[in-house]
Amino acid sequence: MTIPIYQADAFTNKLFGGNPAAICPLEEWLPDNVMQKIALENNLAETAFFVKNGNGYLLRWFTPELEIDLCGHATLATAHILFTELGYAGDAINFDTVKTGTLIVTRDGEKYSMNFPSRPPFAADIPEGLINALGGNQPKEVLRSRDYFLVYETEDEITNMIPDHALLAKIDTLGVIVTAQGKDIDFVSRFFAPAAGVPEDPVTGSAHCNLIPYWANKLGKNSLHAYQVSSRKGELWCELKGDRVIMAGKAVTYLRGSIEI
């Protein structure tokens, strides 16, 4: 069996920036264990698989370790491949997902705009070991949604943070978001998920489901400009719309190929 595979860098317009994702178009679903093995073999933060479904597509995402409920950058990368490589003719794509409902991606010039659910974080206790795993600096707030969400005073604390991924992997959570108000931008963030096989995710759309409602409330505005300050860096144009968040970014194709199974 031959399966097409693409790889694209999301939330950037430059190769080797943003967040790379693999994308596999399928005629029908492969067994779950086979998709998991492909994701492990690709060894990227996420591999997206999609199947045609009426006027839209069914979409699933796998890290090297497990299937996850929501992934922004691999959704944006999938839309980019459909628009630029596979001849999708419309301006908007509907992706139906099992755990997150329908996600809509719209093309606007060079940007792809994603409509995702808002997931405002709520106050939470600090789990044992988390602060030490992040280098020992005390955050000014600790919250949680799907992931732990730590707010710091300065952008430099986020940029200079050196986490201990072995310690982080022991925390009972999929991931950890760290964030602060930016110097020349609304906010910055980083995202760590070693327990899911992703020590640091370069640019994380799902984290912005938490970040956008938090910073919209703190800064008193619904339109926001953000950077995820990993080594690859990513840029997002964000908006809070009621119980939904809009994330827009660019993408560039890196690879076209095939998998032999």
TrEMBL record:
Active site: 46
Chain segments annotated as transmembrane: none
GO CC term, one of those recorded: cytoplasm
Keywords annotated in UniProt: Isomerase
Domain of life where this protein originates: Bacteria
InterPro entries assigned: Phenazine_PhzF-like (IPR003719)
GO molecular function terms noted in the UniProt entry: isomerase activity
Coiled coil spans: none
Family, as annotated: Belongs to the PhzF family.
Protein name: PhzF family phenazine biosynthesis protein
Organism from which the protein derives: Mucilaginibacter achroorhodeus
